[in-house]
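Pasting as-is:
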Amino acid sequence: MDSAAWDDRYAASELVWSAGPNQFLPPLVDVLAVGSALDLACGEGRNAIWLAQQGWDVTGVDFSAVGIEKARQLAGDSTVNWIVGDATRFDADEGFDLVMIFYLHLDHESFESAVVAAVKAVAEGGTLFGVGHAVRNATEGVGGPPYPEILWSIDEIGPMLHGLEIVELGERMRPVEGSDNEAIDLVFHAERR
């Protein structure tokens, strides 16, 4: 989907995603010192807003102007630097203590460009954290895109984290409300030491 399609999707409903942070983010943040954070492909900003409420200095980037405008409105008094920009070409002027990518599903080349941009944006001593639908989710899990070619795999992501120390790269199960089955997510956590 291009930015216009995402603009339409965000304009069509009050809230496309849940209002709270991704369930895997708070446990990670609990062990990190408060600092600066970059949320690439932030959508309506739920993770960026939550981090700002925890005292982080946050920048949220998304190529949907409608998504960014909704994020601004949802942020209320929380201060976030919102940028309409393409995660696959984002060039950070500074290093961030935490860089995040949540559920960004693109063709291999575009996704690799986004991860390379994310890796480059991690400051010395910083953390890169990502969550997406695993390939196995298409056949054994719940939700997410039904296209295996844009879902995340360990073999694909591992080499993209070059230059960082991998802390975690693997699947996590996630309960889905209203379903007896769980979603199968792929999580990567890497650090620049």
